[in-house]
Amino acid sequence: NYYYDENGLCYNSYGSSNLHYVDYNSLKKENILIKFKEMFDIFIKKEVDEIMIFDNLENRAIKNVENNGIVFIDEIDKIANRNNYNNDVSRSGVQRDLLCLVEGTNVQTRYGNISTNHILFIAAGAFHVSNPSDLLPELQGRFPIRVELNNLTLEDFKNILKKTKFNLIKQYKYLLKCEGATLNFTNSAIDKVAEVSFILNKKIQNLGARRLFEVLERILESIYFNNLELRGLNITIDEKYVFEFFKDSLIKKNKKDYYKYIL
User: Boundaries of each Clp ATPase C-terminal domain copy (predicted)?
Assistant: First the structure.
C-alpha cells in the first residue's frame, strides 16, 4: 500500500525504507525505487528552493538583524581610559567609534544598509586595572544595566570539567588518542584539578576557568616530553599524581613558589 503526495513522494504502510518517486511534471510517468536517504535529500532540496528565494531572503535577513540582532562586545575594559598610560587618546577614539554604533546608525554591508537603532548591545570586561566609570560618560549611558558576576566556586570548576560538552578532560583524551595513547582521569583526580585551580586563583591571580587549562598543561607536560613514543601507553591520572605536582604551591605560603603558575 503506497501513499503518494502531490509532489510525487510516497511511502508504504509497512515502514519500508525504500520509497517511490513519481515525476508528475514529465509526460511519461514512471516509478523509481530509491533509498530513503536519497529521497530525503531530494525533498529537502525542493523545499529549500521554494522557500529560500535569494532576493526575498536578503530582505528577511536584514529585517531580522535590525529587529532581533544582538552584538556582544567583550574585553571592553581594554579601551577604558587609564591615568597611567599615554595612549588614552586612541582608547577614547575607539570608544567614540563604538558610541556611534550603540546610539544608532546605518552600517553598510554587502547585502545592504543595516540600521543599529534596535539592535541589543551587550558589553563585558574584567576591569582589573580600570573601572566602568573610566569609559566615556556617553558610552556609559548607553549601557544602563550593569551586572557584576560572582567568582567561580569550587563546584563551578568541577562542573566545567565534568558536565560541559567539550570539556578539557575530553579534549586531552582525544589529543593523546591521536598519538595512540589512552588517557584516563579518576573522579578524585578531576576533583583535585578543580581544587588546585580554585586555590591558585584565590591565592595568586584570578584567571577564571583559564586556570584549568594551565593546571592540566602542567600535569601532562611531563607525559608529552618524557615519552618519545606514546603509542600503546595506558595513562591513568589519579589524585596523588595531581597533588605531587602542586604540593609545594598548596602548602608553602611563599608567593615565589607560585610565579611559574601565572599565565
Answer: 152-243
